[in-house]
Amino acid sequence: MNQEKSSTLEIKMPILKLKIGMYVSRLDKPWAESSFLFQGFLISNNALIKKLAQECEYVYIDRTKQDNQLINEKVADFSPTTEKTEQGFGHLLQRCKEFLGLRKTEPPSEPVYQKTNRLKDIVDLTVKTDSIISPRKQLPYHKEINFAKQTHAHIEHLMHEFTSQVKEGGTIDILIARPTIYDCMASVLRSPDAMVLATRLKNKHKSVWQRSMNDCVLALSLGRYLNLHEDDLITLGLSALLHDIGNLKISRQAIEAAENKIELIKTHTQLGYDILVNCPGELGKVVADVAYSHHEQLNGFGFPRGLYGEQISAFTRIVSIVDVYNTLTLDTQNRQGMTHYDAITTMLKKSDSQFDETLLNSFNQCIGIYPIGCVVEMNTGELALVVEIDPKHKLRPTVLLLTDANKTPCAKQVVDLAQTMTKDEMTFSIKAIVRPEKYGIQI
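Below the sequence we write its predicted structure tokens.
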């Protein structure tokens, strides 16, 4: 912690509120631990603000040295949007969607890359996960949510086209999907919470593609957490999105008529491989291998080939983790999905046999105690939707209040629980994750 004495004209300023023309007198850490050469400087352009965002959460501004003319002329790309409170909502879920969609967003910037890791090195333990520094969020969720929803819609449209091509007996070109996956990756790098939330707020699991999109976003979120190289993130996103494509070749009628339904369903791995292996380039071969192998287990008890250990690729290991997690938490006609806690506990018990222990532990850390999109009950009775996770305060995320203490729908209000710790009154905190359907909430 920086122990320098603060001036009465020196104010603490979050990175998101910095403007061109302000004078940075101190950082939230010693100058020697930063990449800045000079102790104190005038913010002359947006590049300096972006550089500060990579290293700091807040700085100290000396108002006696700022350039007021520049401040009045230019506002940084990180300046927050001001919204007016609006009243009146219909259905509870629709209210959440409308609220998140009302936020105005600036044009998204390109992701800021730093020294990145290769997935193979992490799996081979050449890079220790406890030494990995995840990239800082570049934007809060509400500034990225519109772009995230648009990207989600583009992926959905693309997947419908692929579905038609596969069902008509044609082939697909995964290179067509690369630009869309890049947009998804860039959005996750800027604000992973926004993309996860956009996926959660869709009518989930209505098709194989909705589940695959969930897998894609979770896989990219884990890849971001591991600070993976862009090339690995693109491959990972495509692999997660297309790993279940073989299911399109198995009709519901065929399953109902089959004597051994399970064995028929298992053939989707071979069918997926056959569809993808002829796609051009090395990327097609990697994605095809994931489709073929995502039900393999490290102990050799998976299918279709009974692979074990190093025979299972690094990309397959991540896709297997997110696929099983989504399967366990999925509500179906025959059963109610597990809670997040039960699902992750079940998977951790198999970390030494079925899953890659390093990647599974990283996944658990990545999604946190209160995952984005889950509904929680507050200690004072309100119900709320988790919309953003603070990496430094994972038990105190940002939530969107859905009801008052009597469980009656209320006007929208976002509460950053990490900020409530500074208040004198009783701390506002999460009591437990709840099932939204118990209170008539459909997420």
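The chain has a mean pLDDT of 83.
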